[in-house]
Task: structure prediction
Amino acid sequence: MRDALDNPFSPGSDTIPEVWAGRIEQLSDWRDVVRPRRLAGLPERGRTILGEPGLGKSTLVRKIAQEASRAGDWVTPQLRIPAGSDPLKLVADAVLKLADAAGLPASREKKISDAISRVQAVAASGVSLTLRGVDGPEPYSALTELLVEVGVAAIAHGDVMALIHIDEIQNITDEKALSQLLIALGDALTHEVEVTVPGGARVSRSLPIAVYLTGLPDFEDMAGARKGATFARRFKTTTLAAIDDLDLAEALQTFVLEGWEVPDGVGGTASVFMAPDAAAAIVDLCRGEPFLFQLAGEQAWYAGASQTITADQVRQGWRGAQREATAHVERILERLPAREKQLLEAMADLPAAERTLTRIAEKMGFKKTTDAGPTAQRLDTVRGIIDRGKPYSFRHRAVEAYLTSDWPKI
Result:
C-alpha cells in the first residue's frame, strides 16, 4: 500500500510536492495583488524571493507558475541560471517562446519582426553581443522591446498574464550581465501603453507582465547595494523564514482525518492514515524547514507498509534521514562568513533570555557592542536567520536546534 510510486512527499526534487505546507502570504500575494493589479493595468513591482537553501523558494514560485498556467497565462519554464552562464541568452530564449505563445512570429508588423530578429541574435550570442555595425539597440533594449510586444499581445488577448521566473539569480556574477538583465525586466514592468476604454477615451496602463526572481540572500547585496534605489523601486524583496508549525500541522491534517488516497493494487483505491502523534512528530522534527518536512514525511512513509503511519515509524524513518538533515544545516553554516557564524555560535551558547547584543558581543570577544551590530543586522535583514528583538532569537529554527541541542538526533 505504501511504496515509492505513491509516496506523496518529495524532498529536494524541485517539483511541487503533493503535500503542500504554508507560504499562504506569498501565494495570496500572487492571487490577490500581483495578478489582478497587472491584469487591470495597474503598476506593481516584480517579486524577489530569497532565502537560505531548503526553504522552498523555487518550489513556491513553481507553484505560482502552475496556478498561472492553469489560468491560461503565458508562463516561462523555471529559468535556472548556472554559475558562469550568460543569463541574457537564457532569458532571450524564454522570451522568444513567450512571443510564440502570443502569436507574434505570425505578425507581419515590421517592428515586431525586427524585435524578434534582434532577440534571436541575443539568444545566440548573449550579452557579449555588441551589435556594432548593426542597426538596433543594445541586447537589453531588444529584450525589453520584445517583452513589451508580448505584453501588448496579452492585452489584446484578454484575461492573460505573461509570467517570467528566473531561478538561482545569485549565480549572475557578471555585473554587466546582471545590470542589463535587471534593466530589461524592470523597463518592461514599468512600461505603459495607451489603450482605448469604453466610451472612446485613451488612457495609459501597465502591461500584464509579472517577474519573479528567486535565489540565495547574497543576491540582495549584488542587486540592492550595486543598483540602489532603481532595483528597490521595481522589485519587492521577500526573505523566506521557517514555516509555522500550525501550517505544517494543517498540511498533515488530511492524513489524520480523511487519509491519503492511494491505489490498492487490485484496481481500486485505499487510504493511508497518520496517527495524530505521528503528525506531531514530523512537525517537531522538521523545525519549520520545507525540505526537512518533506524528508521526514518521505522516510516515515517508507518505514512501514500498514494503513496507518505511526509515531514509531516517523522516528524510525528519521533515524535514516539524520545524516542528510545534518548535512543540510551544515551546508547553510559553512557558506556563512566567519564572523556571521561566530555570532550564531555566541548566541547559541547564551541562555535564551540573555541573547542581547551586548552579551553576544562580549561572548564574541568584542570590547564594543557596536562591533557586532552590522553582523547581527545582516543575519536578520539579509539572511533571515535571526530576529533582533529583545532579546535576540533564531528565526531559522533548524540552525538553532543544531547549535543548541542534539538535534537532529532523537
